[in-house]
Amino acid sequence: MPPDITFCEPVHTAHLLENLHELQKLGMFCDVTLMVNKKEIKVHKAVLAAISPYFRIMFNSAMKEAKEDKIVLRDIEFNILTDIINFIYTSKIKVSEDNVYCLMEAADLFQLSAIRTVCCHYLSSTLNSSNCLSVYVRAKLRRYHDLAHLAFRYALQNFDKVINEEEFLHAPADVLFSILSSQLLHVDDEGVLLQGLVRWLKYDEASREDHQDSLISKLNLNLVPMPVLVSCKTDPLLSNSKFLSRVDKAITDILSERYDSGDIKKLYSYSRKTHWKHRYGAEQEVILALGGESNGMALGSVECFTLGYDTWRCIVPSLIQENGEFVDTRVIPTMQHPRLYPAVATRDYEVFVAGGYNLSSLLNSVEYYSIQSHVWTTLTPLPVSLQGAGAEFVDGCLYIVGGAGQTGYEKRVWIYEENQNCWQEATPMTTHRGFHGVACVLGILFALGGSGKTFDMGWMSVPRSNFGITVSFRRIYCLGGHDGIHYLNTVEKYNPHTNRWHCVNAMQVRRFGVTAGTVHVPVIKEEPI
Prior knowledge:
Blueprint: H1 12-26, E1 32-36, E2 39-43, H2 45-51, H3 53-59, E3 70-72, H4 78-90, H5 100-110, H6 113-125, H7 132-141, H8 145-157, H9 159-162, H10 166-169, H11 173-180, H12 190-203, H13 205-208, H14 212-216, H15 226-233, H16 243-260, H17 264-278, E4 282-290, E5 293-294, E6 297-298, E7 302-305, E8 315-321, E9 326-331, E10 343-347, E11 350-357, E12 362-370, E13 376-379, E14 390-394, E15 397-401, E16 404-405, E17 408-409, E18 413-417, E19 422-426, E20 437-441, E21 444-448, E22 468-472, E23 475-482, E24 487-495, E25 500-504, E26 515-524
Parallel strand pairs: 1-3, 8-26
Antiparallel strand pairs: 1-2, 4-7, 4-26, 5-6, 8-9, 10-11, 11-12, 12-13, 14-15, 15-18, 16-17, 18-19, 20-21, 22-23, 23-24, 24-25
Helix pairs in contact: 2-3, 5-6, 7-8, 15-16
Keywords: Actin-binding, Kelch repeat, Repeat
Pfam families: BACK, BTB, Kelch_1
InterPro entries: BACK (IPR011705), BTB/POZ_dom (IPR000210), Gal_Oxase/kelch_b-propeller (IPR011043), Kelch-typ_b-propeller (IPR015915), Kelch_1 (IPR006652), SKP1/BTB/POZ_sf (IPR011333)
């Protein structure tokens, strides 16, 4: 008897969608009509319900729409509804500057995550100084946390241009307050911020008067050039505010420091420290290698590497000058719990470490390190002990994905609720995974490899397993590991454009089961004496 075969027609689904769309355009077998402003479009309930939870609930509930032949939709334009229906039938949609925000609203209404993703991609790829603030406001309103974070950081890093755009004058007061509260802010000096703030206040004096004092309080007036202070002091807009007393105090302080101090070095030191603590206009990435095993011991030590280092070091700069000189370097403290195979995720200036193995037992402890505070802080432990889990931030929340536990590989996913300092279980993966990779792209969390899964890239110079991996300056770095015979301290970086690996500076310590992450360090201008 010949064996059974299972046949799969590769273009069947495409033909099915294509033919369903033809039927829809002809109005054949359609069983419901959607109406917007007296304009109609006929559709098939089953097709809409198959892809949209919104329509699935509408057509399969006690709602009156479930029994009606015509359904009136509000809060959506007919041309946007047409685009959405065409997408449902064809999987294609055109996103432009004119329709992207309307499509975002429709995607949220009909719960179409694919359209939400493509809108986020479009906005993130078209960010510029004239639209980043509106993108931030819209994304924050719709709880697109990753897009909002990206747009906000773009605004901070390009604020010298943003402040001269028309959009700046329309920025809400709370957004401007958040911007002026940030240490990362790329402008020549505080005078630029003060002049921009005055222009913003004058654009709508009546409604913005109440915000004047709170916004000006976020400026360091001692760093405003004297001519700017004097011109603002005589501005009629500011004549009856607390601002005048602050200006007078700033002028007195500046004159005192400039002319009454007999020690120029003391004045210079004071000026530098004041400037450093307040603003910086750029950042530099720093790679961290965390934990691992060496010589039969679980490690809690951390090494770092960045541009300007000729070797890996156990000290990290708090600040980097534009000329590359490192300022206020500090020894990186060891983790509170030595570990290998932990899950690691980074967020701006912080690196989070969860779980792992200490050569005697699995761990559930969680801690994070901040470049700014230079301390490890303990968080609530994971509900389970894990090694080889993945970690990533999605929409501002820390996710721990899979891993190897006491009973084998996991498919559970945990979310850290920062406000409540607790862990909540999320939707699990479809596959049990451990020692895998995770990545977030436009709010979607991907789990890759692990449990025997592989993918092809260019060959490294030496075979290695159980290594740390991170991305810095658009290159993939692989650190340490094991080559089948020896523990390694060698480091290689991968160029995705050439598909080639290059050897770079080796770590101080051979590390097996090491993990890695990339954080940011402020870059400042050196003040002339």
